[in-house]
Design brief:
This protein has helices at about 40-60, 70-80, 90-100, 115-130; strands at about 1-10, 15-25, 30-40, 65-70, 105-110. By secondary structure, it is an alpha/beta fold. A hairpin with a 2-residue loop joins strand 2 (about 15-25) and strand 3.
Length: about 140
């Protein structure tokens, strides 16, 4: 099973967005991603981080995934506790639903202080992307 911490940041909301994911298999940290993803809102960034997490699970070939996020909105929408009303988020939700097929996925809301690594990566990516004029930056272990 993979445990993936996700976070999205937007500097200005809307503003430059970055995502951060940190992937663990058991206690071992096996991958991280920090990526500038353009301009938009924090919710778009949060959703995009979940998409990247699920794409990573597929690439690695893992079928059981536990996604941890400090975005209560995203977790509740992924767990179908809340409806997705924002028109810009609906296609992202459909993409996530599609990526969940064939996987056993659990979404968990965690406090912000338990998501420091992904938070740092997402903010660094947004800041670096802004400085580089929008060129993507990725970091992997």
């Amino acid at each position: 099973m993979l445990i993936i911490f996700t976070d999205g940041a937007s500097l200005g909301n809307p503003g430059p967005m970055g995502i951060g994911i940190v992937v663990y298999r058991g206690e071992m940290r096996i991958e991280e991603l920090s990526e500038y993803i353009g301009t938009g809102t924090n919710n778009i960034a949060e959703y995009t981080a979940v998409i990247k997490a699920l794409e990573t699970a597929h690439r690695i070939g893992e079928r059981e995934v536990h996604i941890k996020s400090d975005s209560e909105l995203v977790v509740r929408q992924m767990n179908n506790d809340y409806k997705v009303k924002d028109i810009k988020l609906k296609p992202l939700k459909r993409k996530i639903d599609s990526l969940c097929k064939g996987l056993e996925v659990h979404f968990e809301h965690i406090p912000r202080d338990k998501n420091k690594e992904a938070d740092k990566l997402s903010k660094e990516a947004a800041k670096l992307g802004k400085k580089r004029g929008g060129r993507a930056y990725q970091a992997k272990l």
